[in-house]
Amino acid sequence: MTSASAQPAALSAEQAKVVLAEVIQAFSAPENAVRMDEARDNACNDMGKMLQFVLPVATQIQQEVIKAYGFSCDGEGVLKFARLVKSYEAQDPEIASLSGKLKALFLPPMTLPPHGPASGGSVAAS
């Protein structure tokens, strides 16, 4: 792999599935699970702190896997991988599912109000 970092990584949908599965597997490795737990504890479910503590750890874990597939070992490599995955999501339900699982590993669940923020009648103001 002499010039892998010089060329943009191009993966087929099947290769993208393999890499996504490897990335997800990397999150369950004991050392990475500990790193993510510590980052989540530091973030205290605060979105700003999630970006500060959890996202960098999640990015590092992804970088460790995707660099073997020709992506640069930096934030730009992770963004390129994310864009590639996103491009396959609409065509391939398995990629969409794996992508959702990956996001769930480092993004907190989003709780939406039942009828949107402007729904009034069901909650009494006190």
TrEMBL record:
Keyword Lipoprotein: no
Keywords, comma-separated and alphabetical: Cytoplasm
Protein location: Cytoplasm
Annotated GO CC locations: cytoplasm
Domain of life of the native organism: Eukaryota
InterPro entries tied to this protein: P_C10
Family: Belongs to the UPF0456 family.
Name used for this protein in its record: Protein C10
